[in-house]
Amino acid sequence: MLSAKSLFQEILDDDESFRLFCSIAASGEAQGGWENARIAALVPESERELARKIARHGADEDKHGRIFNALIRKRGLEPVPVPPETDYTMLLEKHGIGLAHDKLRSERPLTVRDIVTYLAHSRVTEQRASEQMELLRKHFADHPDVGRAVKVISNDENNHLAYCHEELLRFAHAGHGRAIQKTLRECALAEIRIYRDVSLAVMAHMGRVLGWPKARSAVLAAVIHAVYAWERFAGWRRMVSLEMPQRRNALGGPAAPAPEYA
Fold first, then answer.
1. Angle at 27 between CA 144 and CA 163, to 5 degrees
2. In this structure, what is the dihedral angle of CA atoms 73, 74, 77, 81, given to the nearest 10 degrees?
3. What does the pLDDT look like over 96-136, one tens digit per residue?
C-alpha cells in the first residue's frame, strides 16, 4: 500500500535515495542559515532585540544542515550535488519570495518593511517545514538512525513557526497589518506552486534511483497535483492566518544542541 510512511521508508532503506534526500535537505537548511544570519546582521537599529531571535533562527537552520550531513556520513556516504529543480530555497528566492540575495549581500541596513516581508515569508515556509517534520516525527520518532534528528528538527521548526506568529502580530499591532496580509497571501500562493514543482522533481529523481515503474511514478505525480489543487483552492489559507502561539518567546533562549553521531 502506498503511504507517506512506506514511501519514506523505501527512501530511507536505500543508500543512494537516502543521501539524495539528505543532501537536498542539508542544502536548503544551510541556505536558510546563511539568509537568516545576513538578515540578523542588517536589522535596523530599532529592531536590535529581534536581531537576536533571527540569529537564533539562522543558527538552528545551520544546525539542521549539519545534522543531515552527519546522517549521510554515518552511513559512510558523501553528500551529492543538489539538482537545481529540487532546490526549494533557491527557487523561492528566484521567484521573488523573501528578500533578494543581492540585498542580503550588501551592507545597507534593512528597513522595517523588509523585516515584515522576511517574517511573512518565514511564516509561510515554516508552516510547510513544521508540517513535514511532524509527519516524519509521527512515523519515525523511534527510528534508530533518524529518530533523534527528526525530533530535534521538528521541535525547532515548531519554535520557528511560533516566533513568526508572535512577531508578525507585534508588527500588525504597530500598523503593518495590511502589508502583512498582502505579503502572506502572495507568498502562500507562490510557495504552494513551487512546492508542487519541487515535489514532482524530487519524486522523479527518487523514481529513477529506486527503479519505480512508470505506473507508480504516475500515481505519485497525481497525488502531488491533487494536493496542489486542494492548496490552491483552500489549503493556502492555513499559511496566512495569525494567532498568538502557546510557545511565547520561542527563540528567546539558547538553541537546542544537535544529536551526536558516532
1. 80
2. -40
3. 888 999 999 999 999 999 999 999 999 999 999 999 999 99
